[in-house]
Amino acid sequence: MSHWINLAALGKVLTASLVAGAGLTLLFSVGLVGVSEHAGRVRRGPRAVARGGASAWLVLAAACFAAVVGGILVGFWAMTQK
């Protein structure tokens, strides 16, 4: 443990930045895939929609986008607490 650098706090900041940066980006990407898959199955016709579960992709996308918005709101809340 250094007297000048608080390694515990540095570890917390590193973990939070990795989760927020990479995790929210991953969730947003999965949401885009869900929207794309839904649109592709809808374009292929009623058989593809019924067989492929197009609505499940849309629900997945909505959940991912909601989690991203929630993460952004938590970030704003955390920044305004000090």
Structure notes:
The protein is mainly α. It has one domain. The protein is 87% helix and 0% strand. α1 packs antiparallel against α2 and α1 runs antiparallel to α3 (54-79). It is elongated, with a radius of gyration of 19 Å. The model has no long low-confidence stretch (mean pLDDT 86).
In short, what is this structure?
By secondary structure, this protein is mainly α.
In total, the number of strands is: 0
* Low-confidence residue ranges: none
Q: How much of the sequence is in beta strands?
A: under 5%
Report the mean per-residue pLDDT as an integer. Answer: 86
Instruction: Give the % helix.
Output: over 70%
- The SSE order reads HHH
Outline the fold blueprint.
Elements: H1 7-44, H2 46-52, H3 54-79
Name the features.
mainly alpha; single chain; about 80 residues; 3 helices; elongated
